[in-house]
Amino acid sequence: MKSFLSLKVSLILLLLVHCVVVHGDGIDDVQPLSKIAIHRALFAFHVNASLKAEPVLLGTKGEDFQWITVALECPDPLEDDWVAVFSPAKFNSSTCPPVVFPGQDAPHLCSAPIKYKFANDSNAEYTKTGKASLKFRLINQRADFSIALFSGGLSNPKLLAVSNTVTFTNPKAPVYPRLSQGKSWNEMAVTWTSGYNIIDAVPFVEWGFKGESQTQSPAGTLTFHREAMCGPPARTIGWRDPGYIHTSFLKDLWPNSLYTYKLGHRLFNGSYIWSKSYYFKSSPYPGQDSLQRVVIFGDMGKAERDGSNDSNEDTNYQPGSLNTTDQLIKDLDNIDIIFHIGDITYANGYISQWDQFTSQVEPIASTIPYMIASGNHERDVPGTGSFFETNDSGGECGVLAETMFYVPAENRAKFWYSTDYGMFHFCIADSEHDWREGSEQYKFIEKCLASADRQKQPWLIFAAHRVLGYSSAYWKDGSFGESMGKDSLQKLWQKYKVDIAFYGHVHNYERTCPIYQNRCVNSEKSHYSGTVNGTIHIVVGAGGYRLNSHIPLQTNWSIYKVSDFGFGKLTAFNHSSLLFEYKRSSDGEIYDSFTISRDYRDVLACVHDGCEPTTLAT
C-alpha cells in the first residue's frame, strides 16, 4: 500500500488532492484528507474547501470538451500503476469477471472507466522518480467525472486514490449533432444527444437560410435502458446511461442552399438552453447536373486524442481512426455526403464510447449528412435474429446504432434503406440480416435497384458491410466473399446494371475489374466507357481499425489492393463522367483511381443477363 499520493488536475484551474489510503473495494471506502486546495488560475485567488465542496467546473464558456492535466507524485511507484477517468464520478471499483474480445485487455472492474493511462506513459522514469504528468481530454457526457489511481495493473486493480468530482457547467447541454438524409431528397434529419427528458424540456431545432429569419421544428426523443441490451458487457460492466437522443426533421428544403441551425431545449420555467450554431448545405434536386462528391468507407471506429485507452481497447486498437477523421475534416468543403458502411464505433458493449465517437465526428456529421450501415460490431449477438451467431456487438444487438443515428429505413431494426443524392441512387443493405433470395431484404434490394431512374440518376451504387461480392482477402466457404446468396445478388447487380458495389469488414482496400460470375468483362484497368456489362467491387474497410494484410494469392479479377488506412471518394462531374479515388488517410494522397464515361444509351443497352425478356410481338 502506498503511503502518499499527490494527484493534481489542472485546466484553467488547478486541483490538488493529498494522500488517501484505501481500506475497501468501493469508492466510498477511500479515506481522504479533510482539505484540498483549489487554485483558480484564471481569477488568481485561492480557496480551501473540504472534498464535499462544489466540483471543479469545465466548459465554463460553453465548450463541450476540455483538456485536463493530472500531475502524479508517488514515493513508492510501480510499473503497473495506472490512472483512470470515471463517469459518473461515483463508481464500483470491485473486480468483476472480464468480458474478452480479441485484442482487448480491459480493466477487470465492475464499473468500466471511460478511459485510462498507465502512469509511466508520460515518463519512462516514473518508477525511479515517482512523478508523472498525464493529459486527458474530457467531453460532456451528461454526468460528473472523477479521476482514480490504481496499482496492480488491469487484471488485479487496487484502488489507491480518487480526486474530487469534475463536471461541465451544464452536463445536460445538447451536443454532437449528426445530420442524415431524410426520407425525401429535400428533408434533413438532425439527431443529437442531451440530458433532457421530455418531462424536463421540449427539444427543437431553430433553423433557416443563413442571415434570414429562423423557424423552429420540433424533435422526437428516444432513449433505452439496460434491459434493452442483449448481453454482456452492454448489459453489465459496459452499461452507462445513454441520455436522450433527439431527432428533428427539417422539411421542404430548397436545393443547394446554405442553412444555419442550432439545437434548443425549452425548459418549463420558460428559459431556453441552446447549442452553438451550425450550418449545412441542402441536397441537390434528384438528377441535377452539378458537381457532386461522395465519401465512403467502413470500419473506422474511434480513438482518443489524448492517447489514452478505453475499456474496449488496448494500445493502438484503432490507429487510423483519427487520421481518417482529420483528413475528412480538412477536406470537408469538397465532400457533400458520407457513407460509413458498418463497424461504426467498435464500442462492443461499452456504451460510453458512442459519446466519444459522436464527439469525434461532430465537425463532420454536424455539417454534411453522415449515413451509416449496420455491421457485425453493431448488430451481432447469438439468439437475437442476427444472421451470424457471434457476439461481435458486445450485447448491443443494434440498439445503439439504430438510436444514435437516423437512417431513412422503413424499420430501423432492419437496417436497409435507399437514398438519393443528385445524380446518385444508393441501395444500402444490412449484411447482418438475411439477404438470400426469397428473403425480405432480397426483395428490398431488387425493388431499390429497380427504382433507379438511370436517365436522371445514372450512377447506381450498392453498399453493405460484409463482402457480399468479391475480396481476395476474404476466403469463406470456398468463395471469395460471402458465398451464401452471392450468386443471387450477382443476378440483381447484372440485371439492373449496378456501377459499383462497396464493402467494409475486411480492413484493407481492394478494387476488382467490372465482373460477373467470377470473370472480368472488361480488360481496362483505369478508364471504363460504353456499356455497363459488369459491376466493379471495392473493399473500403480500412477506415481506422487494425489493418488486414493481403494474401499472396493473385486472382485474375483483382486490379489494385493495398493495406493502408484510407477512404473512397466518388466525384460525379455530370451524367456521363464519374471519378473514383482511394485516398490515404494520413495525407490525402491518392493511392488508386479510375474513371467511367458513358451515355444514357450505354445504360439501356442489352448485356448478358441484363435485358428484359422479349418476344417477337415486342
UniProtKB/TrEMBL annotation:
Protein name: Purple acid phosphatase
InterPro entries attached to this UniProt entry: Calcineurin-like_PHP, Fn3_PAP, Metallo-depent_PP-like, MPP_PAP, PAPs_C, PAPs_N, Purple_acid_Pase-like_N
One GO MF term: acid phosphatase activity
Residues of the Purple acid phosphatase C-terminal domain: 534-593
Keyword terms: Glycoprotein, Hydrolase, Secreted, Signal, Zinc
Cofactor(s) the record lists: Zn(2+); Fe cation
Subunit structure: Homodimer.
A cellular component annotation (GO) from this entry: extracellular region
Region (Disordered), start-end ranges: 302-322
This protein's record includes keyword Cell division: no
Gene3D superfamilies per record: 3.60.21.10, Purple acid phosphatase-like, N-terminal (2.60.40.380)
Family: Belongs to the metallophosphoesterase superfamily. Purple acid phosphatase family.
Purple acid phosphatase N-terminal domain mapped to chain residues: 176-281
Domain Purple acid phosphatase Fn3-like: 52-170
Domain Calcineurin-like phosphoesterase: start-end pairs: 293-509
Compartments where found: Secreted
Signal peptide residues on this chain, from the entry's feature table: 1-24
Species of origin: Quercus rubra (Northern red oak)
UniProt-listed SUPFAM superfamilies: Metallo-dependent phosphatases, Purple acid phosphatase, N-terminal domain
Chemical reaction(s) catalysed: a phosphate monoester + H2O = an alcohol + phosphate
EC number per UniProt: 3.1.3.2
